[in-house]
Amino acid sequence: MSKRYLCYNKLWKILIDKKMNQAEFRNFVDVSSGTLTKLRNDREVAMSVLIKICNAFDCDIADICEYKKAEESEK
Fold this sequence. Notes:
The protein is mainly alpha-helical. 48% of the residues lie in helices and 11% in strands.
């Protein structure tokens, strides 16, 4: 079975487009520093956090994250 993970690159692109840094994002969406760390490290966060981000940016979950297959070199 292939290992898979969540990737939040789309979220970081949204922040770049909005000229928003991660601290501003954290305050705007009202997430903890621990959650921000999880997002930066492509780790799983609660669905409620993803919904909160989508509501803040008026977007869909697919607009902020992807479910990707890990590369062979990452195993």
